Amino acid sequence: MTKADLIEEVSRAIEMNRKDSEIIVETIFENIVNALRSADKIEIRGFGSFRTRQRKSRVGRNPKTGERVDVPPKKVPYFKPSKELKDLINAGKSSANLGAA
Description:
The chain is of the alpha+beta class. The protein has 4 helices and 5 strands. 43% of the residues lie in helices and 27% in strands.
């Protein structure tokens, strides 16, 4: 699903014009990004939580030349799904498929 698809679904679900739905979706995304920038945790009950994790600096390699490259420390976004979301995703699977690799 793309952002455009999500906007269309919101528009259809609440019977609102597409432009207003786009404002709603954009506002939600902007607030999530702003909270993550501030190192806040976002928790949406029944869906999951967003937070940032700190990655340490490390030495990497340029894949083309093999040359060593210093990679600086950085924050990366992280999403942890809720148990309810995991259960909803796996609801259609039989117990025989759960242990299959």
